[in-house]
């Protein structure tokens, strides 16, 4: 059994980790932390977990976590960075669902996250947790900086086009037009997340620059070895869960001569969680809701030189807690889908 701890158990991704881990056959939950709820039974706060999760919140300290084999940080940026070294040095593996260990350039991290990076050596060691792209490194990692939600959808949408050998697209004019449900903003109350603000509304945000942009471009460069230029526009949709990424690329001559459907199907043939849907399909967020699946479809409208890739994930599962458990499974030599076989909840 893997002894697991969760720092940040009162938030959306922390409680989603609980939902998944409660039924994981190889996990023993040792600790779950909250600064404000110490001693309170988790199931009292989350009645959905009653009769399955019998543990109380503890302090987010080393003392609470020292008997774990692996600790998930489902916390805001900066929290994992402050505790990771102590845990890793004690032989405890760490998966950060936040962004502390994603951007490899510390100046870039400081620019986008507004805080200096206190662990540059660990940052260098950390493995970027987009498993379908970095599986072997994740398996042996002591510390994983899990890919962000939008970056997961966009990178998986583009990966087959970037690893086909010769470039197939103009890699400097990629457009990622992404829509997310409100749970992406976390459980903390902000005005924009209020029902009266977000419902019956649809808006773009951070158009001039979102912190996932450098992560997407860094991730695509790690995949292809070449620099890309992405225009990334996130939108907030009045739904609870889900991301739909609509990615536009300009095909070059080689790309226009390629059977894109066959390319995608071949590329992802062995990926348990990536489903390339039949030609002409239109993936919807309800096709993945509550599951760790990514559903993709590639279109070439009117046979012209623009390809449109649609990718949908559940931001809380493949975009966070599910991908984190997938990483844990890989790190401990378990089948990646163990505990992650939930089918999407529909309608
Ligand atoms: N929501 C999403 O779709 C996604 C979120 N993420 C990332 O996952 C992380 C968590 O997100 P989310 O669950 O949405 O956030 P929430 O705001 O819902 O929850 C944050 C959690 O962190 C805990 N926390 C806050 N500050 C500290 C601290 N200083 N020390 C210890 N614990 C702390 C809080 O617990 P308490 O106050 O009780 O201590 C709470 O449980 C973030 O980094 C986010 O960017 C990643 C992908 C997708
Ligand atoms: C709808 C919404 O607000 N989404 C969040 C992104 C989700 C998030 O915080 O995720 P990462 O940990 O992957 O950065 C945002 O745009 O800030």
UniProtKB/TrEMBL annotation:
Pathway: Amino-acid biosynthesis; L-arginine biosynthesis; N(2)-acetyl-L-ornithine from L-glutamate: step 3/4. This is N-acetyl-gamma-glutamyl-phosphate reductase. The active site is at 149. Keywords: Amino-acid biosynthesis, Arginine biosynthesis, Cytoplasm, NADP, Oxidoreductase. InterPro entries: AGPR, AGPR_AS, AGPR_dimerisation_dom, AGPR_type-1, NAD(P)-bd_dom_sf, Semialdehyde_DH_NAD-bd. It catalyses: N-acetyl-L-glutamate 5-semialdehyde + phosphate + NADP(+) = N-acetyl-L-glutamyl 5-phosphate + NADPH + H(+). PANTHER family: N-ACETYL-GAMMA-GLUTAMYL-PHOSPHATE REDUCTASE, CHLOROPLASTIC-RELATED, N-ACETYL-GAMMA-GLUTAMYL-PHOSPHATE REDUCTASE, CHLOROPLASTIC-RELATED-RELATED. Residues 3-141 form the Semialdehyde dehydrogenase NAD-binding domain. It is found in: Cytoplasm. Its EC number is 1.2.1.38.
């Amino acid at each position: 059994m893997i002894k697991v701890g969760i720092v940040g158990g009162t938030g959306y991704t922390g409680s989603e980790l609980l939902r998944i881990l409660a039924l994981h056959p190889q996990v023993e939950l040792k600790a779950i932390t909250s600064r404000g709820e110490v001693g309170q039974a988790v199931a009292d706060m989350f009645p959905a977990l009653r009769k399955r999760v019998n543990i109380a919140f503890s302090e987010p300290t080393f003392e609470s976590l020292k008997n774990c084999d692996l600790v998930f940080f489902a916390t805001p940026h900066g929290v994992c960075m402050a505790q990771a070294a102590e845990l890793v040095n004690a032989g405890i593996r760490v998966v950060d669902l936040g962004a502390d260990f994603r951007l490899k350039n510390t100046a870039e991290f400081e620019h986008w996250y507004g805080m200096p990076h206190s662990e540059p050596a660990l940052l260098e060691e950390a493995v970027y947790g987009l498993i379908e792209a970095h599986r072997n490194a994740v398996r042996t990692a002591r510390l994983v900086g899990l890919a962000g939600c939008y970056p997961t959808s966009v990178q998986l949408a583009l990966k087959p086009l970037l690893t086909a050998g010769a470039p197939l697209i103009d890699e400097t004019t990629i457009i990622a037009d992404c829509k997310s449900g409100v749970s992406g903003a976390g459980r903390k109350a902000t005005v924009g997340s209020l029902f009266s603000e977000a419902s019956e509304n649809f808006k773009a945000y951070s158009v001039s620059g979102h912190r996932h942009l450098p992560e997407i471009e860094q991730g695509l460069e790690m995949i292809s070895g070449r620099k890309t230029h992405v225009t990334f526009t996130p939108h907030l949709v009045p739904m609870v869960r889900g991301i739909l990424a609509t990615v536009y690329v300009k095909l070059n001559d080689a790309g226009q001569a390629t059977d894109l459907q066959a390319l995608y199907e071949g590329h992802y043939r062995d990926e348990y969680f990536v489903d390339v849907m039949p030609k002409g399909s239109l993936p919807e967020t309800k096709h993945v809701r509550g599951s760790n699946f990514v559903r993709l479809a590639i279109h070439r409208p009117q046979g012209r030189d623009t390809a449109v890739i649609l990718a949908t994930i559940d931001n809380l599962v493949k975009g966070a807690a599910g991908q984190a458990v997938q990483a844990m499974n890989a790190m401990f030599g378990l089948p990646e889908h163990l505990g992650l076989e939930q089918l999407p909840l529909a309608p």
